[in-house]
Design brief:
about 325 residues, alpha+beta, 4-stranded antiparallel beta sheet, 11 strands, about 20% strand, binds (3R)-3-hydroxy-3-methyl-5-(phosphonooxy)pentanoic acid
């Protein structure tokens, strides 16, 4: 009995999404897999050599306890949500802006639900996965857990108006060729999100202006995706990167990596996720992608190529 959660890259709108601006993100094939094994409520994460018990002093133990508690509360038609031992494999680096914690939480939730014979719709799964994610990120927008559940390419809006879904699959878009590269430094999303919140307090009007600029660039990116205009989408990546840098969540290394990717032929480049370290992404024509990856790798950055396909709407259905 196993469950899977996808990692993700945010194409446009990270950080602004915390403050109610839509963002566009895509699931990665890499993520996390968890399976139920014999034993009591404990979670072993094989590649990290970590074993946690629900409620122990570690953040993972607290997250595991929060997820189990949220499952208990979300009783479904008298079906009992049991506690089990799990073994998990995470195939993404942590603190890299690729949503590893959300992927792990979703994998754990799905493995538990599968063995208990529980089928949950997107909104209910999202609420439970968020209980886990809050332990790590303080004030998560929910985009990581939403994409961990859905995979595919989608637009996400925190607290949508009544009747509108938070996650809207983007179907029919052109396949996107990306390079994902690690700056070599970990990034703390909790810290960068808190840093952006301080800017809001310090100068609310300037903050609102930047949010409006993010809103515009996300809308332009969505339109570019619909037209299949990769050049325009790349320009949106660049614009998003300068807005994020203006909020202080980029680093000199991430800036240099974006410049390097552009010199090697990328159509656009930006940090992805929380920043302050972690990863950047570059959009390229399929024929240029290997060159962009090699340029980043030659500077000592771990880099991989990935292809973003259309959304898988069956995974984002609401009840
Ligand atoms: O660093 P990650 O992969 O957790 O991505 C965080 C994305 C933010 O927009 C910065 C925060 C959020 O909760 O949306």
């Amino acid at each position: 009995m196993s469950g899977h959660g996808s990692g993700k890259v945010i194409l446009l709108g990270e950080h602004a999404v915390v403050h109610g601006v839509p963002a566009i993100a895509a699931g990665l094939e890499a993520g996390a897999v968890a399976r139920v094994v014999d034993g009591e409520a404990e979670l072993r994460i094989a590649p990290w050599g970590v074993l946690v018990r629900a409620g122990d002093a570690s953040p993972l133990g607290a997250a595991f306890a929060a997820l189990l508690e949220a499952r208990r509360r979300d009783a479904i038609d008298g079906v009992r949500a049991n506690e089990h031992a799990l073994e998990a494999h995470v195939t993404l680096p942590g603190s890299a802006g690729l949503g590893s914690s959300a992927a792990l939480g979703v994998a754990v939730l799905r493995a538990l639900d599968e063995i208990d014979g529980i089928s949950r719709d997107f909104d209910r799964s999202q609420a439970i996965a968020l209980a886990w994610e809050r332990v790590f990120h303080g004030n998560p927008s929910g985009i990581d857990t939403a994409l961990a559940l859905s995979g595919g390419l989608a637009r996400y809006l925190r607290n949508p108006p009544p009747g509108e879904p938070a996650l809207r699959p983007i179907t029919g878009a052109r396949t996107l060729s990306l390079v994902v590269a690690h700056s070599g430094a970990p990034g703390s999303t909790k810290e960068t999100v808190a840093g952006v919140a301080l800017r809001k307090t310090a100068d609310p009007q300037a903050f609102e202006r930047t949010l409006a600029a993010f809103r515009e660039v996300v809308a332009m990116g969505e339109a570019a995706l619909a037209r299949g205009d990769l050049g325009a989408l790349g320009a949106c990546f660049d614009r998003c990167q300068s807005l994020l840098a203006g909020w202080g969540v980029s680093t000199p290394t991430l800036d240099a990596m974006c410049a390097c990717a552009k010199e090697a032929g990328a159509l656009g480049a930006k940090l992805t996720g929380g920043g302050g370290g972690g990863c950047m992404i570059a959009l390229a024509e399929a024929s240029d992608r290997a060159r962009v990856r090699e340029a980043l790798a030659s500077r000592g950055h771990e880099a991989f190529e990935t292809t973003i396909g259309p959304a898988r709407p069956e995974n984002t259905e609401r009840a």
